[in-house]
Hints:
The chain is built from eight helices and 13 strands. The chain has helices at about 5-15, 25-40, 45-50, 60-70, 75-90, 190-195, 240-250, 255-265, and strands spanning about 40, 95-100, 110-115, 120, 135, 140-145, 150-155, 160-170, 170-180, 205-210, 215-220, 225-230, 230-235.
Amino acid sequence: MNVPDPRLMRRYLGILGLGARKPSRQALEEILRAHLYRIPFENLSKLFHKEVRRRTDLVEVDEYLEDVERFHFGGTCYALNRGLYQLLSWLGYDVRLCGADMAEPDVHVVVVAMLEGTEYLADVGYGGPFFEAIPLELSKRRVILMGNDRYEFFRDPAIARLRLAHYRGGEYKHGYSVNPRGRAVEEFREIVAASFREDATFMNALLLVRFTREGSEVLHNMRFLETRGGVTSTHLLRDKGEAAELAARRFGMPRSIVQELITRLPLRTDPYG
């Protein structure tokens, strides 16, 4: 990995509202929480990268941070967890970038950090409320609740890996298993390029997720889900104009840009499977 630019990493910490701290589980979870509060999971930046920049490659960290500050974008796992990986590396963490299997091998990217002899999963790129660092050698099932969503982490003995199962309203929707081998970011370039194809999930769906201290806000195709106090309310949107208005008002994104991007999305697929 190229050595992260200190100026960019200090800028990154500024976006998170944090200072540099000695690596520890507590400090790591402080970073995860700040990241999930301040930088959304969303795919409009992906469409922006393709349609405006005319590119289908990995977003570099300087572009990623510029988009976060200028447009209040975030990204999908390739941008979010790659950025987290570089920040943690610069801060002195023993980290590696790893793939995770979904329907296809290694289509998700996560970070694994070694702290005091224990390996932990760090994932800000799934759209889940993963404020904790999860041990890869998890001894018992870890359940995280957010309104109608239930996330279960467990060690799958059949494959000897950490697995995530995501349920919504009691129905299994999605998940992944972690491949703990460290990978160079270049190994994901073909997978990233494939994620920009016309038939790819995030070229045919809309998903914006942000977390607050009270709950979460999710713009999921033509639905807006708001969770407060453990209760989720669902609002059905009239049209793409209302979706653009919500993206601007709730996520702080420029209305003119998101209006144009959302108009181009056919909304043919469900990102949760």
